[in-house]
Amino acid sequence: GRYKGRPMQVHMQMSEVKPEDFTRWLELFRANAREVCQQDIAELFISRAEKVATSFQLCMFYKDRIAAGDTFKNGEVLDE
Questions:
Q1: What gap in Å lies between CA 35 and CA 64, rounded to an integer?
Q2: What are the backbone angles phi and psi of residue 36, rounded to the nearest 5°?
Q3: Which of 29, 41, 56, 75 makes an SS bond possible with 37, Cβ 3.0 to 4.6 Å?
Q4: What is the value of pTM for the model shown?
Q5: End-to-end Cα spacing for the chain
Q6: Dihedral angle sign, alpha carbons of residues 26, 54, 59, 9
Q7: 36-62: string of b/e by CB count within 10 Å (b at 16+)?
Q8: Which residues on adjacent β-strands are paired with residue 77?
Q9: Separation of alpha carbons 75 and 59, rounded Å
Q10: Pair 71, 80: CB distance under 8 Å
């Protein structure tokens, strides 16, 4: 709660980042969280990281394709 940075702005300036980079980042994050945290705490961190990753992907790569009410997971629109 104390962090006051603007990570979205920084990521938006990184043209070399691709959507699939988030998949790899989440794999590494999940493995590390489960290694260093108690299971229930790790799952909370992982859930938050997945939401952040989806938000970043939507803003960075898909903002022109988003329709109201779309549901996303890992940057992909889910079929209802």
A1: 37
A2: -105, -10
A3: 41
A4: 0.70
A5: 34
A6: negative
A7: eeeeeebeebbeebbeebbebbbebeb
A8: 72
A9: 10
A10: yes
Q: How far is CA 79 from CA 24, 50, 54, 73, in A?
A: 23, 19, 16, 11
Q: Which residues in the chain land under pLDDT 70?
A: 1, 65-80
**Residue 77 and residue 70 in contact, taking contact as beta carbons nearer than 8 Å:** yes
Token digits for 6?
């603007």
Total count of residues recorded for the chain: 80
Tens-place pLDDT, residues 43-62: 999 999 999 898 888 888 87
Cβ proximity of 46 and 25 under 8 Å: no
